[in-house]
């Protein structure tokens, strides 16, 4: 089936504030140039933006017109052969998503499920009272790529791979007969709630954001909550830009468990990505560029007194976890922080006692 | 051997060691009859675990008197069948000889008994001498230091400092006739700080335990950098590997350099990955080295899109070829190692992949740079199902074909099994071969040491 991105060029023509590019953290561009370049991209023409884009997903959130500028950029990069990353990294990434250890075991749930997707091995992060009674799918690390949402390929200018594989992933999830699918990772939620509708891939289940689920469960268990009192910084993942309407749950959860989010410069819309993807890009100086972003981000956490860095995305954690720890800031997954708040001993990324 | 004779030898071994450390029970002999590779099993008649050099001397003298083979065993992890008692006899398990006798921080060496394992030394240094390290191979942690040295093993400092056998300051050896000899400065009764400039000790390295039993050795230690980690790089054109290794070694900023390709997991299929270990004492030094390697040296491959930087991870992850045993049911694997000129990497990869695919085995090839790019240890690994004779035979055939390939490509088989020893022997310069024969005859006139290895010289 031919999945085509719905991108309405007229919305850009009518746009009074091309924030998609003017708000970009990584490209310095004025308003007029921004409008000119996004229209060039919409028309299928080359633009310096295609080469300079670091694929942080930010423009998906910044667009005031409800268009999909980042999906468009990724498609044009692929069409024009302007890959942001070197060829071997593209091959490696495309191969990474290939299931190779047999078919998954399908159990029909007929109810809500938690989809661990390509993070089966992190099931220690979804233990305890918060997750009681919730069926989990993709629990076998050998089969997890049958549940991999594929959206990572936006970083690699490979929308074609997403379109080719994602319908099959949806079909695998549907074999479990879920009513709702809680997505462990932001990226999966973004895939099913934003990307699929944008290209016409049918999603027959209701995706639920992990934080929405956590918030509701905490609310049910609020008698158990002991305010944690930690001063925390949140590391917002790139794929959170695909569901900005759910970002408020970060603050809602912090409020519920008594965590104090430090008021820092690089938070919310102004967040900096982990730069894990940037370090490997083709542009001259990418490794240093990534290191610079990371330093700026962590310095900002330190400056405002964060004692803990809260993650959702395992890739962000892999990239930044050790770095923040070396600066005396404890890395923690949001679910572990929530479990700690209800008096549980956590077993995830570092023990919290 | 008659029953009476066997009882006599058993009792003599008990008298030398004690009854707790001698066995002729079939279930224990069985364990010593095979290694983890594809070689056919052969049980010894006795297993003995001595604790002292003197006990080893007495065992060897007993073997000479009784004309019984002697097979020394370290960690038993060489895979090529080198310590399988092909002709029975007394297997000497050296694991109880496990004392770390001395660490000299100023002259940076350690004197060890022959049963000291890699993990034992690593943890001892980490606890008592955290500023020092040794060149640790990717072998399982129970592999012995001595065993690895004697097969010309290579560790994670092979790139700057060469083979582990190049890093020996002295040896104590029980000769096949029972005398104890020392080589290196220790032979003069002084400390074990150097092997130079006395006549060399190459009579024992690479001989597969056929010329004596090493009981003690001194190895060089090196500064353990405060920060150690590895960066990863990837290309999809195998022809680029030799020039990239050449460029990285030229910076003299890297510790270990390994190039590899494998079919499982699928993301690596057809790609050539590099892991480059970097050590530094400060963040400033680390960044300087990273800039030189990834930006200045390999930047041209990145910007042209043919090479990709995968990031730097703190902490060392030693290459574990044994992970390939998971590729097939039944958990078996064996590999052919070779010492190769680095320019042969592309052909080694292509031809090795062909052999694997012909035998229905997911391919795994690895090249470790040795000595600032003077050569590499290139290995082809073949997984097999231990419960399936056909699978074992496929691996065995693939291993033999690879031994032949090594010779065809102009390499040298590393720690060859008996098949590899035969083809090396047949190609040896006749005068070299005759000299080896004379050395072997002179050292082991009764022919008792690990027979079946390096025979027919």
Quick structural summary:
The complex is a heterodimer of chains A (353) and B (457). Chain A has 353 residues and is of the alpha/beta class.
Task: Give the amount of beta strand of chain A, in percent.
Answer: 5-15%
What kind of assembly state do the chains in view correspond to? heterodimer
Please give the number of β-strands of chain A.
Answer: 8
Proportion of residues in extended strands of chain B? 15-25%
Helix content of chain B: 25-40%
Helix and strand succession of chain A?
A: HHHHHHHEEHEHEHEHEHEHEH
- Based on secondary structure, the structural category of chain B is alpha+beta
Kindly report how far apart the N and C termini of chain B lie. Answer: 27 Å
**Overall number of strands of chain B:** 19
Overall number of domains of chain B? 4
Tell me the CATH topology of the largest domain in chain B.
Uridine Diphospho-n-acetylenolpyruvylglucosamine Reductase, domain 3
Please give the CATH architecture of the largest domain in chain A. Answer: 3-Layer(aba) Sandwich
Main pleated-sheet profile of chain A: 4 strands, parallel
Features:
heterodimer, A: 353 residues, alpha/beta, Rossmann fold, 4-stranded parallel beta sheet, 40% helix, B: Uridine Diphospho-n-acetylenolpyruvylglucosamine Reductase, domain 2, Uridine Diphospho-n-acetylenolpyruvylglucosamine Reductase, domain 3, Alpha-Beta Plaits, 4 domains, 8-stranded antiparallel beta sheet, 32% helix
């Amino acid at each position: 089936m031919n999945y085509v991105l719905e991108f309405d060029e007229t919305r850009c023509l009518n746009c009074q504030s091309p924030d998609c590019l003017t708000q970009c953290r990584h490209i310095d561009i004025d308003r007029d140039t921004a409008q000119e370049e996004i229209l060039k991209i919409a028309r299928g023409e080359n633009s310096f933006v295609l080469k300079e884009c670091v694929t942080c997903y930010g423009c998906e959130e910044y667009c005031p017109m409800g268009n999909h500028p980042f999906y468009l950029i990724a498609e044009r990069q692929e069409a024009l052969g302007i890959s942001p990353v070197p060829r071997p990294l593209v091959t490696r990434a495309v191969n990474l998503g290939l299931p190779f250890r047999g078919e998954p075991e399908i159990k029909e749930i007929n109810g809500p499920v938690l989809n661990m997707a390509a993070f089966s091995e992190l099931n220690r992060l979804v233990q305890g009272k918060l997750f009681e009674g919730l069926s989990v799918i993709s629990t076998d690390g050998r089969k997890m790529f049958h549940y991999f949402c594929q959206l990572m390929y936006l970083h690699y200018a490979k929308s074609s791979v997403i379109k080719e594989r994602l319908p099959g992933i949806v079909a695998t999830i549907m074999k479990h007969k879920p009513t709702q699918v809680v997505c462990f990772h932001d990226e999966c939620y973004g895939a099913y709630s934003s990307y699929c509708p944008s290209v016409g891939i049918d999603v027959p289940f209701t995706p639920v954001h992990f934080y929405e689920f956590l918030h509701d469960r905490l609310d049910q268990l609020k008698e158990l909550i002991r305010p944690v009192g930690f001063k925390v910084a949140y590391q917002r993942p790139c794929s959170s830009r695909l569901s900005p309407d759910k970002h408020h749950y970060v603050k809602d959860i912090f409020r519920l468990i008594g965590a104090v989010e430090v008021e820092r410069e690089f938070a919310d819309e102004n967040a900096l990505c982990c730069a894990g993807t940037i370090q490997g890009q083709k542009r001259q100086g990418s490794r240093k560029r990534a290191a610079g972003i990371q330093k700026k981000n962590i310095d900002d956490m330190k400056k405002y007194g964060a004692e803990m860095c809260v993650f959702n995305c395992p890739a962000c954690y892999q990239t930044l976890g050790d770095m923040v720890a070396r600066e005396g800031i404890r890395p923690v997954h949001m679910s572990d922080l929530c479990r700690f708040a209800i008096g549980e001993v956590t077993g995830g990324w570092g023990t919290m006692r | 051997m008659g029953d009476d004779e066997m009882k006599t030898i058993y009792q003599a071994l008990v008298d030398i060691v004690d009854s707790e450390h001698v066995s002729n029970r079939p279930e224990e002999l069985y364990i010593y009859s095979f290694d983890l590779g594809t070689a056919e099993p052969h049980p010894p008649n006795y297993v003995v675990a001595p604790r002292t050099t003197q006990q080893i001397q007495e065992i060897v003298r007993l073997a000479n008197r009784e004309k019984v083979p002697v097979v020394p065993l370290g960690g038993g992890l060489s895979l090529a069948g080198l310590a399988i008692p092909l002709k029975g006899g007394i297997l000497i398990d050296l694991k109880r000889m496990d004392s770390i006798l001395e660490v000299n921080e100023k002259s940076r060496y350690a004197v060890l008994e022959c049963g000291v394992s890699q993990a034992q030394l690593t943890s001892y240094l980490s606890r008592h001498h955290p500023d020092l390290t040794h060149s640790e191979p990717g072998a399982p942690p129970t592999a012995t230091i001595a065993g690895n040295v004697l097969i010309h093993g290579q560790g994670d400092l092979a790139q700057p400092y060469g083979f582990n056998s190049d890093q020996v300051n002295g040896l104590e050896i029980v000769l096949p006739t029972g005398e104890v000899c020392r080589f290196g400065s220790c032979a003069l009764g002084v400390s074990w700080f150097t092997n130079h400039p006395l006549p060399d000790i190459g009579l024992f390295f690479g001989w597969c335990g056929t010329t004596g039993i090493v009981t003690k050795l001194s190895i060089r230690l090196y500064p353990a950098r405060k920060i150690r980690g590895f960066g990863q790089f990837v290309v999809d054109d195998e022809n680029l590997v030799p020039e990239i290794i050449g460029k990285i070694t030229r910076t003299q900023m890297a510790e270990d350099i390994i190039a590899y390709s494998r079919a499982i997991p699928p993301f690596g299929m057809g790609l050539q990955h590099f892991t480059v270990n970097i050590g530094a004492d400060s963040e400033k030094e680390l960044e300087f080295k990273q800039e030189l390697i990834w930006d200045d040296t390999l930047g041209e491959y990145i910007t042209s899109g043919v090479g990709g930087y995968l990031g730097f991870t703190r902490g060392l992850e030693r290459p574990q070829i044994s992970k390939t045993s998971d590729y097939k049911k039944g958990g078996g694997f064996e590999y052919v190692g070779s010492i190769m000129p680095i320019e042969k990497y592309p052909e080694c990869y292509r031809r090795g992949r062909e052999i694997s695919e012909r035998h229905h085995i997911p391919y795994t090839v690895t090249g470790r740079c040795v000595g600032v790019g003077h050569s590499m240890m290139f290995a082809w690994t073949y997984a097999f199902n231990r419960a399936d004779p056909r699978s074992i035979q496929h691996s065995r055939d693939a291993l033999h074909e690879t031994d032949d390939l090594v010779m065809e490509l102009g390499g040298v088989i590393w720690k060859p099994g008996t098949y590899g020893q035969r083809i090396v022997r047949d190609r040896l310069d006749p005068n070299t071969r005759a000299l080896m024969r004379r050395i072997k005859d002179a050292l082991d006139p009764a022919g008792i040491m690990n027979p079946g290895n390096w025979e027919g010289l």
